[in-house]
User: Which sequence fits this backbone?
């Protein structure tokens, strides 16, 4: 049996229809319309202990509904969700002492006082033995490089500093699963790197299972071998990131530096041509025309000074996927 | 449990100390706000002399006791009173993520030291009332004051818990909460016999305000001598426990509907 | 002018979205109305002769107070303005081609008006139908009614001017809590929100005459029931009007001062 087991899980919400304009507002004052929204339609997947899974999808796809069910906040209408032998929403208090959750947009730290004080409270909330608490705190604090930061009132911290404290706070009780909801949102490059390296490290060394939702594909590239993509409440893709990339990396962006003016080129496989500084950029479909063939063809026409070949960027792949599934 | 709560208390104190000046200003302004409701009673009695046989100091006595109970709630149960914030801001989710009783977390989430100002004022008014009342002191009379304060605290805690439970169903129409909390306080300051029968019945048997002010007052002022009246405020337990159950049952609804 | 009307429309629509809220407000107002009337009734039954108002005048005063509560409410705090005060940040506001004073004025006025439009009518109707002695009486006579309407409209402008002024003062002090609540308690006391002005001790009534607050609702409600009539009513309404101009003048001036202060400090 898998560590996390989700099978045919669904959830529907009832939402009031809001209207605009004076007349329809007056009307809805007396009579209300409701709409039913299927947030999840029979979702299934499994996750093994120690995996890092990127859970992606556009806004409103059902990501946060899934995370809420997995973390015991919400009960599904039907289906099974079993984690580490427990049903999260049935066995809440026991279950949550074994998970850590970080919401990128929300804080669990006390605003007006240093993070260290919140840690102290968490020690009592999770009933962490004193010695364990001290050694774990010291370890986390030095790994995240926040020795000084946790002594400053949280409201004075930068977003990156605060996020590092949030992550430390969510791991003090040594959970076996960590849920990260957009952990790098709004962070600068340095903080992003610290956070990612740290997640990788605790995953490797402590065998912590990580479920990560994000809109930042570079998070996924840096961390997750496997992604689950969800859209309109259904799982659309479940597999390695590499496989997904291979499927779509036939589009190459080729920059050619040249002094010669290039006129219109009509050849199968060349999708687009743009003028750039000191030359041109071509989008080429390598399934139709081989890159070497294309370069051969081009060098016959113009004098090529330098070239640069780039694969399709992951964001574009995702956009394509979303388009393909019409989500 | 107690340990966790004390830790909450400590952190709140530490937070408040970050803004000392603002705390002092707020403390003073609270003083004015409360003075207004004290003032209503004084001006009315200045015009009328007494109300249905009760003197100004008797009314000030129940007024003070009820407000001690109420302000204790405002200090320590503000999280319960402002429970809608948890639902509206989605912060309730974060409570669910901690392996501790939800209600304890709600209590610990907010402690409003500013309202100690009101508590202090109520105690002063209680002393003024007691000094001016002609009382045959006995152990029971001391006990009855303590019971009344405990009862007043519990009855409003119960009301706040009911209001919080309401938030699980809808966060619309929250004004209706004021009926039982602020409206209840307004009423409970006067003995129920002042009100018309239907009101008095409702606030004796449904929300048991009569047991914390009217009946104890009869004993305290020597109008009745039945010793059982000393313990009448303890009947509130029968009100608070169901309130807590209602809260717990309602909280299950959140699990299935989410925000 | 059109943009100001849009503000009104927006707050009216957002008010309509909350019908449960309207119903809740209604029941709350009835509950408080009943509690107050019963307390006064108990006092009147004890000692009718010492009362400064007739009982039906008082009941009418209390019901009008409940019906127009959201319009005449002195504790009005505008969430958006408060959060700007808290952050001390109005540079965003300055970017828009509007006069800030009137913008805030209309904003406060329209949120009050949209709330009261949804609420006053049912309170009035039900209060009329209540049995004696809990019922709202008809206006004293036609003169009283006409003057009541005029005085209510002026009163609504007066309370808005004062509210706008308090928000601006809070802006000056960058403290929305202490100053605002202290002002509001004092204003409420002299306005007759805690007890009708006639129930205040004599020396406070004297002070109240020289402040704007008792002209907000104490005046129109008493004109309605015939407690104030004839030339007294006319002259009082003129004083009321004067206070509107004075409070708008002060508010407008303070607003200008703030803007120049902001421009100097750069927001």
Assistant:
């Amino acid at each position: 049996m898998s560590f996390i087991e989700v099978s045919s899980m669904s959830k529907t919400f009832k939402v009031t229809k809001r209207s605009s304009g004076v007349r329809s507002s007056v009307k809805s004052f007396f009579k209300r319309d409701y709409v039913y929204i299927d947030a999840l339609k029979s979702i299934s997947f499994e996750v093994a202990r120690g995996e890092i899974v990127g859970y992606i999808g556009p806004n409103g796809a059902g990501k946060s509904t899934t995370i809420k069910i997995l973390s015991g906040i919400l009960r599904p209408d039907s289906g099974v969700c079993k984690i580490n032998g427990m049903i999260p929403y049935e066995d809440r208090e026991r279950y949550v002492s074994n998970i850590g959750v970080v919401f990128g947009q929300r804080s669990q730290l006390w605003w007006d006082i240093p993070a260290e004080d919140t840690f102290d409270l968490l020690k009592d909330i999770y009933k962490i033995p004193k010695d364990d608490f001290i050694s774990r705190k010291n370890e986390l604090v030095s790994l995240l490089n926040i020795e000084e930061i946790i002594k400053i009132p949280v409201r004075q911290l930068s977003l990156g500093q605060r996020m590092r404290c949030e992550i430390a706070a969510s791991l003090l009780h040594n959970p076996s699963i960590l849920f990260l909801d957009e952990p790098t949102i709004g962070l600068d490059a340095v903080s992003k790197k610290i956070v990612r390296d740290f997640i990788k490290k605790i995953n490797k060394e402590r065998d912590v299972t990580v479920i990560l939702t994000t809109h930042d594909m570079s998070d996924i590239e840096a961390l997750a071998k496997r992604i689950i993509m969800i859209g309109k409440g259904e799982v659309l893709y479940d597999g390695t990131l590499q496989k997904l990339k291979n499927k779509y990396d036939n589009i190459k962006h080729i920059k050619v530096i040249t002094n010669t003016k290039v006129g219109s080129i009509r050849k199968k496989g060349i999708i687009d041509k743009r003028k750039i500084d000191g030359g041109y950029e071509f989008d080429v479909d390598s399934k139709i025309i081989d890159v070497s063939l294309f370069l051969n063809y081009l060098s016959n026409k113009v004098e090529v000074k330098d070239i640069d070949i780039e694969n399709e960027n992951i964001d574009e792949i995702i956009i394509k996927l979303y388009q393909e599934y019409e989500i | 449990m107690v340990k966790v709560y004390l830790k909450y208390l400590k952190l709140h104190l530490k937070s408040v100390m970050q803004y000392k000046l603002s705390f002092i200003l707020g403390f003073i302004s609270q003083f004015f706000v409360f003075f207004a409701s004290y003032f209503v009673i004084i001006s009315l009695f200045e015009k009328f002399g007494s109300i249905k046989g009760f003197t100004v100091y008797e009314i000030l006595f129940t007024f003070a006791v009820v407000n001690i109970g109420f302000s204790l709630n405002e200090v320590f149960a503000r999280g319960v009173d402002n429970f809608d914030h948890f639902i509206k801001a989605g912060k309730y989710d974060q409570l669910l993520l901690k392996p501790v009783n939800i209600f304890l977390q709600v209590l610990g989430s907010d402690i409003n030291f500013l309202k100690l100002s009101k508590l202090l004022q109520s105690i002063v008014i209680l002393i003024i009332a007691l000094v001016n009342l002609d009382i045959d002191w006995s152990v029971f009379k001391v006990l009855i004051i303590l019971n009344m304060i405990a009862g007043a605290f519990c009855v409003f805690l119960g009301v706040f818990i009911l209001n919080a439970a309401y938030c699980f169903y809808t966060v619309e129409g929250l004004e209706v909460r004021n009926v039982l909390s602020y409206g209840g306080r307004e009423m409970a300051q006067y003995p129920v016999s002042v009100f018309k029968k239907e009101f008095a019945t409702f606030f004796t048997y449904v929300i048991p305000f009569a047991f914390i002010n009217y009946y104890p007052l009869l004993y305290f002022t020597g109008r009745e001598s039945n010793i059982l009246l000393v313990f009448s405020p303890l009947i509130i337990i029968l009100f608070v426990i169901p309130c807590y159950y209602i809260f717990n049952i309602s909280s299950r609804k959140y699990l299935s509907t989410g925000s | 002018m059109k943009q100001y009307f849009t503000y009104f429309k927006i707050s009216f629509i957002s008010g309509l979205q909350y019908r449960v809220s309207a119903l809740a407000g209604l029941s709350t107002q009835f509950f408080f109305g009943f509690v107050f009337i019963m307390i006064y009734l108990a006092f009147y039954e004890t000692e009718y002769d010492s009362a400064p108002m007739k009982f039906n005048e008082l009941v009418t005063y209390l019901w009008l107070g409940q019906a127009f509560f959201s319009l005449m409410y002195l504790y009005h705090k505008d969430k958006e303005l408060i959060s700007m005060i808290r952050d001390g940040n109005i540079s965003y506001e300055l970017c828009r081609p509007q006069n800030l004073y009137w913008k805030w004025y209309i904003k406060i006025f329209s949120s009050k008006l949209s709330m009261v439009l949804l609420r006053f009518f049912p309170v009035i109707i039900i209060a009329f139908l209540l049995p004696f002695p809990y019922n709202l009486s008809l206006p004293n006579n036609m003169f009283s009614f006409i003057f009541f309407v005029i005085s209510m409209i002026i009163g609504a402008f007066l309370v808005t001017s004062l509210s706008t002024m308090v928000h601006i003062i809070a802006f000056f002090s960058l403290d929305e809590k202490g100053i605002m609540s202290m002002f509001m308690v004092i204003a409420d006391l002299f306005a007759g929100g805690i007890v009708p002005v006639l129930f205040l001790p004599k020396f406070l009534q004297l002070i109240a005459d020289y402040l704007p607050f008792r002209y907000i609702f104490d005046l129109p409600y008493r004109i309605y029931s015939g407690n104030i009539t004839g030339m007294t009513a006319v002259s009082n309404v003129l004083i009321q009007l004067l206070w509107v101009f004075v409070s708008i003048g002060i508010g407008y001036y303070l607003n200008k001062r703030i803007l120049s202060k902001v421009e100097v400090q750069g927001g």
Observations:
- The interface with chain B takes residues 18-25, 27-28, 31-32, 34-36, 38-39, 42-47, 50-52, 175, 177-179, 181-182, 185-186, 188-189, 194-195, 199-201 of chain C (CB under 8 Å).
- Chain C has a mean pLDDT of 85.
